[in-house]
Specification:
single chain; alpha/beta; seven-stranded mixed sheet
């Protein structure tokens, strides 16, 4: 007889998961509505760009007249409500795309004002906030200033208004996701509020958004509510779990052109850059991205409900409005944090036998533990969990190419914690 129970999951977790699924029904319906809207928009983008078989092949050398590359830019521009986009496989990470945008737009003596507190760990070295790395913005006399968040982790809108009015910065910088902080991710409504303040108090300031993890989570994209330029990674939401690498920059045409001049050379910009054999996977990734992002959202919602039932604090709550695919779970204990990551890893199709261990990583001040049994190394649209080993011992979980595999990984993470408590 064939067993239908392939994993020896604690009955307490199974019972809690059934309760969680009941709690999530209404939220799942909402997510599926967003999935359908964004999938239709993506298909329209493909049709408007006239995508054909020849666009899926690549070029070599300088990449002159790479019509597939140009068409992919048009697809992303349409779905992100942008004037133009720069989508390239040779962006090595989201941080790289963000850095190209910063260096492409800012000039010596300019000021960039972060209105969402301290930026994410890996971007700090590019700005020159941490470390002593040659070539940072600081080396070029570009000034970085910051508005602290409120004690509850919310944007301090009053201080943001005062600082933008007094500083008149060249750039207002917004980080949508929380990074390794416990603050809430920004929704499009909160982003719009910041943009409205900036446009009113300093109309010439360029509003830049770190949009990592936030693509396709709603029907409203940030560029339609006031953001001028944004960037992200293709091994997160917009790559659909298929893009093997890469990133994007999207926004106003002139700003995208400046970024392209930084990525290649002034004068050549978007006109060069061989795509090799990457086009087919980048197009397929974009096509699947709205659906896959919705599956990751469902996984996050389920994780929030399950761990809330098991007695843990979560952010967002399962029924909250969401600004990205990341789910924060406050575990409060180093061992529980490690067990959670072990559970996620054990639910992977790739490297399920590997035990994640905390280690030093470039760009991070603390040891970091990461669980990611992924088809694409480091892909965080596939189910993954990571955290620095420091107080408050919270875990940041994201991804799930399909909900059923994501649900299993979350249940195995809970199972590891409960079984470890029995010992």
């Amino acid at each position: 007889m064939i067993s239908l129970d392939f994993f020896d999951i604690d009955k307490r977790v199974i019972e809690a998961s059934l309760q969680a699924m009941e709690l999530c029904k209404e939220k799942f319906t909402e997510i599926e509505n967003i999935q359908e809207y964004n999938q239709r928009k993506m298909i329209k983008a493909f049709q408007n760009a006239g995508i054909r078989e020849s666009h899926l092949t690549g070029t070599t050398g300088y990449g002159y007249d790479d019509y597939g590359r140009d068409a992919l830019d048009k697809v992303y521009a349409y779905v992100f409500d942008a004037e133009d986009a720069l989508v390239r496989h040779n962006f090595v990470s989201g941080t790289h795309a963000l850095t190209v945008a910063l260096f492409g737009i800012l000039r010596p003596d300019d000021t960039v004002l972060s209105v969402t507190g301290m930026p994410y760990d890996t971007i700090r070295s590019a700005i020159g906030i941490e470390g002593n790395y040659s070539g940072s913005l600081k080396d070029f006399n570009i000034n970085f200033k910051m508005v602290d968040l409120c004690d509850d982790g919310k944007v301090d809108y009053e201080s943001v208004e005062d600082r933008i009015r007094s500083e008149q910065p060249k750039m207002v910088y917004i980080q949508r996701s929380r990074g390794y902080s416990t603050r809430s991710t920004l929704t499009w409504r909160e982003i719009k509020r910041i943009c409205d303040i900036s446009k009113r108090e300093s109309p010439k300031s360029i509003i830049m958004l770190d949009n990592c993890y936030g693509e396709f989570i709603d029907k409203i994209e940030p560029l339609s509510v006031g953001v001028d330029i944004m960037a992200g990674s293709l091994i997160k939401n917009p790559g659909g779990g298929i893009a093997p690498t890469g990133g994007y920059i999207a926004g106003k045409e002139k700003l995208v052109e400046m970024c392209a001049y930084r990525l290649t050379t002034p004068g050549t910009g978007k006109e060069i850059g061989a795509t090799l054999n990457a086009n087919r996977e980048l197009f397929m990734g974009a096509y699947h991205a709205p659906h896959v992002t919705g599956e990751a959202l469902k996984t996050a919602v389920f994780a929030s409900a399950l761990f809330e039932i098991l007695g843990y604090e979560t952010n967002p709550k399962y029924n909250d409005e969401r600004g990205d695919i990341i789910q924060l779970i406050m575990l409060g204990d180093k061992e529980k944090l490690c067990r959670f990551c072990e559970g996620v890893q054990s639910g992977s199709a790739v490297d399920s036998f590997v035990s994640p261990v905390p280690s030093d990583m470039p760009g991070y001040e603390s040891k970091v533990i990461m669980a990611a049994g992924a088809f694409t190394l480091g892909s965080s649209i596939e189910l993954s969990a990571d955290a620095p080993l420091r107080e408050p011992y919270a875990v940041w979980m994201q991804g799930g190419l399909n909900f059923h595999s994501g649900k299993l990984g979350v249940m195995l993470a809970a199972d590891k914690i409960l079984k470890d408590e029995k010992k």
